[in-house]
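User: I'm preparing a small set of examples for a lab meeting where we compare how different chains pack in three dimensions. I only have the primary sequence for this one, and I'd like the structure in token form so I can line it up with the others. Please keep the answer compact; I'll paste it straight into my notes.
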Amino acid sequence: MMVMRKRILISLGVTVLIFLLSFSFNSASDGNNLMGFPFSFYKYSGGKRYFASDSRHHFIVLAFITDGIIVAGTTFAITYLIQRRKQVKTGF
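Assistant: Understood. Below is the structure token output for the 92-residue chain.
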């Protein structure tokens, strides 16, 4: 149970860190907002250089799910390696 809790906390931390490092907020200066890494799953087209369309908000579900799978897989691999390393040190 403790390992699962650690995995969830590490996963949340990695997700927030990647989100903050990859977030692009440029709509205030005639640009776009982009969210998501490695795949951009949300885009807001804003500013004067873009024509007003029906929707300036673009959300891509497949990219969002893929980002989640990548974060979960990376987190699982990291926690597995940490757990395995502890087992080798203690001999269990």
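A couple of notes for your slides: The chain has two helices and four strands. The chain has one domain: 2-85.

User: Perfect, thanks.
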